[in-house]
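Fold this complex.
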Amino acid sequence: MYSERLDKRAFDELRHMEAEVGVVPNADGSARFKIGNTEAIAAVYGPQEVKPKHFERADRGIIICKYDMIPFSVSDRIKPGIDRRDMEISGVITNALSRAVMLEEFPKSMIAINVYITQADAGTRCASLTAASMACADAGLPMRDLVASVAGGKIGDSIVLDLTKDEEDLHEEGATDVPMGFLPSKNEVVLLQLDGKISQEDLKKILAIGKVGADKIYQMEKEALKRRFLDENKS
Amino acid sequence: MSLESYEYIKDIAKKSIRTDGRKPMDRRQITVKNGVIKHSDGSAYVEFGETKVIAGVKVLPGVPFPDRPDEGGLIVSFEASELASKYETDRILYSVEIGRVTDRGIRESNLIDLKKLSLEPGVKALFVYIDIFTVNNDGNLFDAANIAALSALLNARFKIDGSDEEKKLPLNRENLAVSSTFSKIGNTMFFDPNVLEENAADARITIGISNKINSIQKGGIGSLTPEEIDICAGEAFRLKQEIKDLLMSQVKD
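Structure:
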């Protein structure tokens, strides 16, 4: 039984969020997204020439996204650099963003996106995807929609939104973790992973609770982008 | 128009037609042989049509992970070999992804009772290494890797430290998580895609199921709707049984 969450949130409640764009002035677009104690900073450089050359596509541009947890982002120290987990996460984020950004507008080009996780308390790939999506919008890239990303899951008999690390570690309760990424205005899922043990019915419920969370994150993203343009008009 | 062109595959997909004549939810002919590698503790060779993979299991003593002192370990690697294909995507990334998704299905279903692999808490435990190699890639390496790994584990026999006693792995056999992969071409989902279909596809979803859903991995640069995900989950529940029956029928004892 998991009748009350460790941090007392409602089962469908997101952690406190902060979103801002333009945090890396050198980049063509950038963003910071924080949810609870998980924080991601993303920077976009491009469109630019494709490197390495053999990844070039004649019919569309490509995104190369690198996700990296910095050594002091968790309680142990992580070795600097990209490990197998980072590679996989970079891949699923790249896939999700490749649907959102209209890559057909940029044949033979590359958009490089780098994401740092500065602090990790679960949901780091989701925070990365949200931040990277805002950074793409900040760079002025044409997009089908922003991506809003959040994890859902099941702990004991309860369907929960936006798990913390402590919740993910409730193995006795059989925690299931489902990172999701949505194009919120289009009813499209662009990122989906799952590990754990759930029924088909529960998967439907988790996708539904994830969409509710994504809609709230979507509002935060849009407000942060609007603030940026209001600031620019002032100066 | 070339029979292999993406446009052709996308065009016939609208009518739910496939280049090899299968229906959307049909599986290719599948062959599983285990015990094919003498020097491994368990092995399997799997063919789906022209996709061929080989998996080997080695059980070796090691030092337990500090956060799991009373458990052994599971280490899965997958190689989308250069020998087996030209690849349209980043081969290294593809290898890592398939290895990690294969690992997740086995781990989350608790197929291997890792606690029973402990020899001396904090000091010594058995590690199960599963290495999977592609011999020929004609698509759906995710499911081929999964089935090869399961077959190799089910039939593994190993000896420890010079003892002559042959041991089996501590497996919860009812927890076999079988993987089913679907490619979305246009608006139609196709099970067990061949490599032409994979390259023409917009998105992919791999679902691993024991009696519950243990793993999901969405791939590809397109999107899926929640309804499409639900349909694939339902199909995966149905499709897993044939593989379970096949794998269990080959277990000796």
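The radius of gyration of chain A is 18 Å.
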